[in-house]
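Run Nucleoside triphosphate pyrophosphatase through structure prediction, thanks.
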Amino acid sequence: MMFSEIILASSSVTRRELMNRLGLNYRCISPDIDESPCGETQAEDLAMRLAISKAQHVARQFPQALVIGSDQVAYHVDRPDQFIGKPMSEARAIEQLQAHSGQCLRFATALSVQIEQHQFKHQWIEHFQIQFRHLERDEIERYVAKEQPLHCAGSFKCEGLGISLFESMQGHDQTSLMGLPLIALCKTLRQLGVQLP
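Sure, done. The structure for Nucleoside triphosphate pyrophosphatase is below.
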């Protein structure tokens, strides 16, 4: 299937770093959509709607391009209808991590690949689970001060020092925890004729 270019519908630095792993020529365009829930009660539903909306917003502007959209929603196992967002401040990050202490946190990461002119749409949802250690307040404060995970859902960076906060991790693709499931993306790209590696 022919397409003119690859576009990542995101302004996320982390997603851009993940895309860079693939060694592809692509560009980023921020979809600039409202990411507020619209009545969704399940993380999967919200993540999927947002991933599709991000890709669709950009694909309509560039109908010949292959557009990639992704979104992630986190929640505690015992509170699946209470979504965990980005803290945006140190105080909120500390508060989130205190709530995570000893808890199991789940992530639903959705992927949408679209080519508007071919009416091609492929969606995927990936799940990942983190079991947090029992965390002391002082180690939480040290972590937040050092890594500044203010723009990360759940207030940690698993690709960095955040790994020290975990007791265990469970899932098929660790990159889904970082916000862009590369295994599923690579499978779709290969189906569309993109050579990887």
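The chain has six helices and seven strands.
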